[in-house]
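can u do me a favor
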């Protein structure tokens, strides 16, 4: 229907009343009276605080915060010492990535194309994230990321659900509710973890000071929505004295006995537990390798930070792989227990992370993807078959799931590497082998006098331990 042309006349704001046709309302009432089913009444009403434009502005800010929190946790993946916190952080990297993905999809439904969403930058939020990353300990990191920002985001999402139109904006409501299913356990875990730090001797007053500092800084940029009243930013900021740089050295807590001069567990233990090529030795090596995927949490989390803003889909896939590696670490830890070991009696290797930590992300990624994960796939089929023949249900069960994950990782890794580097595959592999040869020489894993050439793929797989 074509509307009449606009005229330069005062707008008539008179309420338009309904015009019923004689008999129709009565007939409708009669039909309703004869209808036999009494379904629940939908009490939702039209009306909400946000226009599509304002809704989109807020969702874009939420997206950006979630994306930056994914980056931030990835930046700390190497330098968190405590095992449980490192593992849980591997999960949380993906929770924020998945939240960003869901918000990105919702924004694309409100006339904002994904490239526009991905190109969005907010210098205020970036500065806030850099200060958040300047935490002096993992305990401070949890306070800032979870107890301040995470809790503020969860509160904001709940308010948005209440304030937006309950009928016209149902897709946003559903999106935010689904994100909150991850936030609830994540925030509860963080509170318990901070309590554990305090009970273990971390100074509560210092954490409270940091909490207040980050809270004030968040308020100074308008809070999560950007629309809150702005207070004064706290001074001084840590980043004004020293700009944030991610760590490059992998950290473990005091429960671990670590080694980094080889990936060979027998060499690290100074004596073999079983005959080298026996099923028992291969079985234990596989289980230990899974527990030591803690270094893969570090690798893929770090890559999320190192390639930030290059490609959202690559960031998302890296975050998902980080979550998977956290699960593999958990699988290995529990399999050790199920096999009768105290997991901390078995030494933990640092070789891979020690080499990859300072390395250009393309070569670090190539090592773990082209050498580590491909190496697993070379042997895992025979391992699963042998475990089945021996009625070793524990190993058969866990390796079956790990095989499926590693196949997915190899496929995704190929696309991620295309984002990281323009090198052809042969040149990438050769340079990666050269860099890891240099690193293993520096660690004493191989001697300079016999290092006459670059190590082969198989030698790197053995010496790095993946």
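np, heres the sequence
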């Amino acid at each position: 229907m074509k509307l009449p042309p606009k005229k330069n006349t005062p707008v008539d704001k008179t309420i338009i009343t309904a015009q019923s046709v004689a008999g129709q309302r009565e007939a409708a009432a009669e039909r309703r009276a004869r209808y036999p089913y009494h379904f629940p009444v939908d009490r939702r009403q039209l009306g909400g605080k946000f226009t599509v434009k304002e809704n989109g502005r807020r969702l874009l800010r939420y997206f950006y915060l979630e994306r930056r929190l994914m980056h931030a946790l990835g930046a700390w993946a190497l330098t968190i010492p405590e095992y449980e916190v490192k593992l849980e952080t591997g999960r949380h990297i993906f929770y924020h990535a998945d939240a960003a993905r869901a918000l990105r999809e919702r924004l694309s439904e409100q006339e904002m194309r994904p490239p526009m969403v991905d190109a969005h930058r907010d210098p205020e939020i970036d500065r806030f994230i850099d200060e958040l990353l300047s935490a002096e300990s993992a305990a401070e990191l949890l306070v800032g990321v979870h107890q301040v920002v995470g809790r503020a985001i969860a509160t904001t999402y709940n308010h948005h659900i209440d304030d937006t139109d309950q009928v016209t904006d149902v897709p946003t409501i559903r999106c935010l509710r689904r994100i909150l299913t991850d936030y609830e356990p994540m925030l509860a875990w963080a509170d318990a973890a901070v309590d554990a730090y305090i009970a273990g001797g971390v100074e509560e007053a210092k954490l409270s000071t940091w909490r207040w500092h980050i809270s004030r800084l968040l308020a100074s940029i308008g809070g999560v929505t950007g629309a809150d009243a702005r207070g004064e930013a706290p001074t001084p900021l840590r980043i004004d004295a020293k700009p944030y740089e991610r760590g490059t050295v992998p950290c473990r807590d005091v429960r671990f006995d670590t080694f980094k001069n080889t990936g060979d567990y027998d060499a690290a233990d100074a004596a073999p537990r079983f005959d080298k090529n026996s099923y028992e030795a291969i079985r234990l090596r596989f289980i230990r390798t899974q527990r030591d995927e803690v270094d893969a949490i570090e690798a893929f989390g770090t890559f999320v930070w190192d390639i930030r803003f290059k490609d959202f889909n690559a960031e998302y896939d890296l975050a998902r792989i980080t979550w998977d590696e956290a699960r593999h670490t958990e699988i290995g830890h529990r399999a050790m227990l199920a096999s009768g070991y105290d997991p901390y009696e078995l030494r933990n290797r640092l070789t891979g992370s020690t080499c990859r930590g300072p390395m250009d992300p393309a070569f670090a990624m190539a090592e773990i993807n082209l050498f580590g994960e491909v190496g697993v796939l070379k042997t895992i089929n025979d391992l699963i078959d042998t475990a089945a023949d021996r009625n070793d249900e524990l190993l058969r069960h866990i390796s079956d799931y790990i095989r499926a994950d590693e196949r997915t990782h190899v496929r995704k890794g190929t696309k991620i590497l295309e984002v990281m580097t323009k090198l052809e595959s042969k040149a990438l592999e050769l340079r990666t082998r050269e860099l890891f040869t240099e690193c293993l020489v520096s660690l004493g894993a191989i001697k300079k006098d016999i290092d006459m050439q670059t190590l082969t793929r198989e030698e790197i797989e053995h010496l790095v331990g993946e």
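The mean pLDDT is 93. hope that helps!!
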